[in-house]
Structure to design on (496 residues):
C-alpha cells in the first residue's frame, strides 16, 4: 500500500476556529516568534481545515491507498481533558475520514503528533505521570468517535525527536532544556502513555477490529571504521536513540537496552547521584509496555556513521544524554544533502529494515514517513525524485530479503510548517503557495513520478514528466471530451 503523510499542526491552520483550544505550539509561536526561522506560525498553514477536500483530491490524483494524518488534541478536547468534547472538532475529522473512505483511501490516524494542549503542558505535560491518564482518556474519545471507520491507529509520533527537541535541546515546544533528566522522563511517560492507549483499545474496543502501533524514528547507524570503539559507539547510538523506545515494546525482555541502563547509571554515579537519571521500570510496568504495538510504524530519512575517540573529551554538557552516550556521528560527504540533517543514503533503509527483522523477530512494518526536504521551492524537484526512487528501490530490496513490509508513506503530501524551520524547508510532493490566500497546491515532478510508480508498480528511471505541462489526465480527458463534442456537433450539423 502506498500513501502520503501529514500532521495536523503542520497543515491544518484554523488555529482558533471551530472551538479549538491552544496547543503548546500555538503558545510557542505567539510567545516566542523569533524562535521560528521565518517568524511564521501554523495559524493558517496549508489551510487544510478548510481545504481538506482538495487534499483528498490530491491523494486521489496520486492514486495512493493510505493517508496518514494526525488529530489535533486541542481541536477535539480544547481543555485537554476528556470532560468536554468539542463537537465541531469531531465534525471536522468525521468529514475528512468520510471523504477519504468515499474515495477508497484508508486512514492511518496519528493520535499525537506533538500538539499537546497548552494547559496540560502547564500542568507538567510529558514530565508528569498524569499524562498517562490524560492521553489514555483522549485516545478513548477518538476510538469512540472514529473507531467504527478508522482501523489503523498510530499512538505517538517519534518519541526520540519529541523528547530530544522538546525537552532536551529546547528547540521545539515546550522548549525545555534538560538533556540529562527531562529527556529520559519524557521518553518514559511516552512509553507508559502509549501502552495505556494500546490497552484501552484492546480491552474496550477490540470489537472494532483495528490495529494500534507506535511511530518510531530511526536513522541507520554504521560504525565509522572497523575498530571495536566505533562498533561499541554504534551499539550505544542504537540503544540510546532507538532501543530506548523500541526495546520496551518490541524486545522479548521488554525493558530498556542494558547498554542504556548501564551507561546512564554509571554516569549518574560519577556525578554523585544516588540513583540513575534513567528511572528503572518496575516489573509490572515492563509487563504493561511489552508487546503493545501491532506493527512497527517507522519514520526513516537518513543515515550516519558513528565513532568514539578522544576528540569527544569535554565536548558534552554534563549531565546530558549526549554525555551519557558519549559518541559522535557524521554523514558521508558524498551523500546528497537536503536540510541540515538530511543526507540521502537509500541503502540505509534496506539495512535498517533487515536489522530490525533480525533484532525484533520478524516484525511487521509500515514505513509511515520517508521523504526529502530542502530549502528550494519550484516544481522541478529532481533531488526529491532521485531520493524517492532510491528509497522505494531500497524498500523493494528489503521485501526481497523477506522483511514483512505492508506499506509506505511519503512525507509529505504537501509543503507544510516544518516546526522551528517554519516554511523555509519544503518536503511536499505538492507545492503549496503560502503567499496565496487560496493556498494553491500544485503537483511537483516528484508527485508525477510517485503517481507513475504507484500506477505501474515499476520504478522507471527514464520516466521524465514535465510538471509545468498542465496536461494531467483530468485535463486531458476534458480536452478529449470537448474535441469529441466539436466533432459530433459538426457531424450533426451536416445532417441538418
Ligand atoms: C518527522 C516528523 O514526524 C514530521 O513532523 C517532520 O515534518 C518530518 N519528520 C520532517 O522533518
Amino acid at each position: 500500500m502506498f500513501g502520503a503523510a501529514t500532521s495536523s499542526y503542520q497543515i491544518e491552520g484554523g488555529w482558533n476556529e471551530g472551538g479549538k483550544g491552544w496547543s503548546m505550539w500555538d503558545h510557542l509561536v505567539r510567545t516566542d516568534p523569533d524562535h521560528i526561522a521565518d517568524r511564521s506560525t501554523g495559524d493558517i498553514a496549508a489551510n487544510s481545515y478548510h481545504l481538506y477536500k482538495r487534499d483528498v483530491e490530491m491523494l486521489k490524483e496520486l492514486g495512493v491507498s493510505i493517508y496518514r494524518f494526525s488529530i489535533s488534541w486541542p481541536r477535539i478536547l480544547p481543555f485537554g481533558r476528556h470532560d468536554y468534547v468539542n463537537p465541531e472538532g469531531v465534525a471536522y475529522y468525521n468529514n475528512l475520514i468520510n471523504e477519504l473512505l468515499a474515495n477508497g483511501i484508508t486512514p492511518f490516524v496519528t493520535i499525537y503528533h506533538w500538539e499537546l494542549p497548552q494547559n496540560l503542558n502547564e500542568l507538567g505535560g510529558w514530565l508528569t505521570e498524569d499524562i498517562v491518564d490524560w492521553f489514555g482518556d483522549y485516545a478513548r474519545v477518538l476510538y469512540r468517535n472514529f473507531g467504527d471507520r478508522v482501523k489503523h491507529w498510530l499512538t505517538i509520533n517519534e518519541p526520540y525527536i519529541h523528547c530530544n527537541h522538546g525537552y532536551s535541546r529546547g528547540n521545539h515546544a515546550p522548549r525545555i532544556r534538560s538533556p540529562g533528566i527531562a529527556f529520559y522522563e519524557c521518553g518514559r511517560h511516552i512509553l507508559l502513555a502509549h501502552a495505556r492507549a494500546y490497552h484501552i483499545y484492546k480491552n474496550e474496543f477490540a470489537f472494532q477490529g483495528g490495529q494500534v502501533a507506535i511511530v518510531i524514528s530511526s536513522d541507520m547507524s554504521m560504525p565509522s571504521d572497523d575498530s571495536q570503539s566505533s562498533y561499541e559507539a554504534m551499539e550505544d547510538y542504537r540503544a540510546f536513540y532507538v532501543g530506548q523506545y523500541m526495546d520496551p515494546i518490541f524486545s522479548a525482555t521488554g525493558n530498556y537496552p542494558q547498554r542504556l541502563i548501564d551507561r546512564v547509571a554509571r554516569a549518574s554515579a560519577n556525578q554523585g547521584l544516588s540513583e540513575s537519571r534513567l528511572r528503572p521500570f518496575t516489573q509490572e510496568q515492563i509487563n504493561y509496555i511489552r508487546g503493545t504495538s501491532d506493527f512497527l510504524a517507522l519514520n526513516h530519512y537518513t543515515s550516519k556513521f558513528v565513532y568514539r575517540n578522544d576528540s569527544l573529551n569535554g565536548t558534552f554538557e554534563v549531565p546530558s544524554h549526549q554525555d551519557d552516550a558519549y559518541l559522535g556521528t557524521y554523514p558521508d560527504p558524498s551523500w546528497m544533502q537536503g536540510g541540515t540533517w538530511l543526507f540521502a543514503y537509500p541503502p540505509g533503509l534496506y539495512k535498517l529494515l533487515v536489522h530490525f527483522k533480525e533484532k525484533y523477530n520478524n516484525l511487521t512494518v509500515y514505513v509511515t514517513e520517508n521523504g526529502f526536504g530542502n530549502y528550494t521551492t519550484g516544481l522541478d524537484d529532481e533531488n526529491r525524485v532521485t531520493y524517492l526512487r532510491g528509497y522505494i528501490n531500497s524498500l523493494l530490496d528489503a521485501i526481497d530479503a523477506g522483511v514483512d513490509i505492508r506499506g509506505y508513506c511519503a512525507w509529505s503530501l504537501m509543503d507544510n510548517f516544518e516546526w522551528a524551520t517554519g516554511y523555509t524547508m519544503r518536503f511536499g510532493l505538492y507545492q503549496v503557495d503560502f503567499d496565496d490566500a487560496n493556498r494553491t497546491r500544485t503537483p511537483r515532478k516528484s508527485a508525477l513520478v510517485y503517481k507513475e510508480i504507484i500506477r505501474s508498480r515499476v520504478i522507471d528511471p527514464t520516466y521524465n514528466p514535465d510538471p509545468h505541462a498542465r496536461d494531467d489526465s483530468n485535463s486531458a480527458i476534458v480536452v478529449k471530451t470537448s474535441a469529441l463534442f466539436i466533432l459530433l456537433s459538426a457531424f450533426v450539423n451536416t445532417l441538418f
